[in-house]
């Protein structure tokens, strides 16, 4: 039995025949039944949770369908078909309430009163019995059943494989019809159940799936099994166990963040490019396909055309003050995965569940702070490292969020009390980067100004990622809801503060990538100049795009992809697939 057969069988056994399907739309698309036959989890992600991501194969498939997706021709009523010959129509939508399905048929041909659906596929004819896999045969069979239900005579269909430039006939046998209707009903009950099917295990389908970075099959299965193991088994887990995980592709997002700051700038659209102008003169441009998100500092203007095009491509626009304070994010309509947000709000009312998540966030933060201090600090007292480790060990015994906050604060005092030991300030009379304590609102020295600015950049990236995954950024588990505060972004940022923001500050000061001239201090408040912000933003993007070996999964991905993976792992925790949130901690 293949892995998808096992998954379908498991889904079938777990669904009660009396499941309430009233919440499922009357007509399920034939393409979604194809997805269910291929992988029930993929069907659930796409159809129920409305997740989607393009890959090279999906884009190639869109190109193959460019002609058949254009509506051409007309299919007359079934009674009038017998007088027509050589009928051919494209992109025909047909549905049936009786069957409970709908399909957009790529091509319909008719001859002597008999119609034939033709489904286009991008690949080559597979070298297997019947020359087509079950999902493709089921899809075209369902199209044929819909034609029959609407009164047409339809005995077979075709699958056209573009790479082979060859048609394969699909006969609508009794066995295929029964299997098609069975899968349609299983898909309907799965959608109504509210339970995501399990991830396939070691399936060769997963690396080629466009949703593998959303589904995280290997990662979810590994963490699910680890949660069910005894402590002795975990202790003796071999390193090779994690080396079997297939790495995420791509390891980093090749798109870039666009930052526009300064008076008089305007962002417009020119063909397939964003054009940045100052006083009407173009000063820079970037291809739309290369844009991950756009960050506008201060009163930078953007045309309505550029705004609409970015939104249509799911590219968020981040609006910040000149000093880097997050004001707003322009995004498309909220993510359609209401199921995930329902779970988030349900768990948000469970004090014990909130505490467990908060403990993971704080443990990750303390461990990463201690590692950064141990690696980069000069003459750090061993007692400081021991006390920070003791704080980390006490976290699991916290009785509530207030007590946990005290433990985090104690560790932070040890950390920032020795932060200056990581900085190489040069000459004795160089006091620009003297650091004694963490302060903010406003920051009173250049080091704190850099920390605050970088924390703001990290917050906006996490907020955009959280919205993209489908969670509500304002409902946290450690940081409690407060008007206007992105509490969940602050929760997930805890483990990344030392690894990204703090490490950038240490590196830039020690490598002389920033100097006293990059700051302005007025009335006891320090801020970055325009050139200083540019230097920090360049360092920030370098860090976010740097590859790192994931300590749990063993593959190399960028910090930006790590942030996305962590948000998606939190979603898996909220949906009950894995037991505990695994904070990202560097080795």
Helix content: 40-55%
Q: What distance lies between the first and last C-alpha atoms, to the nearest angstrom?
A: 40 Å
Largest pleated sheet: 6 strands, mixed
What is the second-level CATH architecture of the largest domain? Up-down Bundle
Q: What is the 3D shape? A: elongated
Low-pLDDT residue intervals, each spanning 5 or more residues = 12-18, 228-243
CATH fold annotation of the largest domain? Four Helix Bundle (Hemerythrin (Met), subunit A)
Return Rg in Å. Answer: 28 Å
> Count the strands?
18
Kindly give the count of domains.
Answer: 3
Name of the top-level CATH class of the largest domain: Mainly Alpha
Walk me through the structure.
By secondary structure, the chain is of the alpha/beta class. The protein folds into 3 domains: 25-188, Lambda Exonuclease, Chain A, CATH 3.90.320.10; 256-330, CRISPR-associated endonuclease Cas1, N-terminal domain (Ribosomal Protein L15, Chain: K, domain 2), CATH 3.100.10.20; 338-574, CRISPR-associated endonuclease Cas1, C-terminal domain (Four Helix Bundle (Hemerythrin (Met), subunit A)). The protein contains 20 helices and 18 strands. The strands form 5 sheets. Strands 1, 2, 3, 4, 5 and 6 form a 6-stranded mixed beta sheet that branches. Mean pLDDT is 83; it is low at 12-18 and 228-243.
